[in-house]
Amino acid sequence: MRVKDKSIIVTGAGNGIGEGIARRLAEEGARVIVNDIHVAHGEKVVADIVAAGGRASFFAADVTKSQDMQALVAAAVARHGRLDVMVNNAGWTHRNRPALEVNEDEFDRCYAVNVKSIYLATVHAVPAFRATGGGSFINIASTAGIRPRPGLTWYNGSKGAVITTSKSLAAEFGPENIRVNCINPVFNPDTGLSAEFAGGPVDDARRAKFLATIPLGRFSSALDVANAALYLASDEAAFISGVCIEVDGARCV
Ligand SMILES: NC(=O)c1ccc[n+]([C@@H]2O[C@H](COP(=O)([O-])OP(=O)(O)OC[C@H]3O[C@@H](n4cnc5c(N)ncnc54)[C@H](O)[C@@H]3O)[C@@H](O)[C@H]2O)c1
User: Fold this and answer.
1) Where in the sequence is the domain holding 43, given as residue range(s)?
2) 25, 66, 102, 212: most buried, per Cβ within 10 A?
3) Whether residue 16 has its Cβ less than 6 Å from ligand 1
């Protein structure tokens, strides 16, 4: 049990990568708060984890709203007595299309869900971490933040902000034993955002285009990302902060 009894929040855990992270952390002994705005999805993930013998509970919160984020952190402290790890996974993208065709509402939503959420998580979780002498943030960024493709410009920029912000927070909060790390997954064709990244249904032609850029010859899975998150959440990573783990099959273009 690599994260036994740790109190961990996973945002956007009702589906996709976040769901995979919540399941994997629970398998390794964590007490997980499954967060999402989609209540039915989040409750289903909790039911599955509990049925498998894990410990999890649901908390509905919109990560773009300060009051919601405050309540989410408070729920972890109330239910578990402490907060050890916060996985900022909830994310959103505009559909893959030329930069000038993305409207202002889409831009604002992208930055609210992907970047403002990191600000709000920091504001509300740091006091909880301080109360117990430390903690760990794991921010799900993307290869998009370091090797941007055309068509996802505003999303790419938001993930670049996640990466730089995480490194800065790691430097600032290191003296308080608060670690901040990122994970950069490459394309996963099986999540709620996949068709948006691909610019349409993930058909054979779109799959082939993405696959050609991944030397290890397959896409990332939620489990690949979850295993990296498990490491960063565990005490094995006690001296690891300010890094981005690229879970991308050596994507080089
Ligand atoms: N799928 C990929 O190819 C890929 C690649 C790299 C990075 N990522 C990142 O992985 C993370 C998870 O994405 P995914 O692909 O699993 O997508 P997904 O849509 O399957 O899951 C995202 C979840 O976040 C929830 N969510 C959205 N807005 C929210 C909000 N305001 N508050 C709380 N929850 C909210 C959604 O309801 C959904 O359940 C995102 O940060 C995404 O940018 C995905």
Assistant:
1) 7-247
2) 25
3) yes
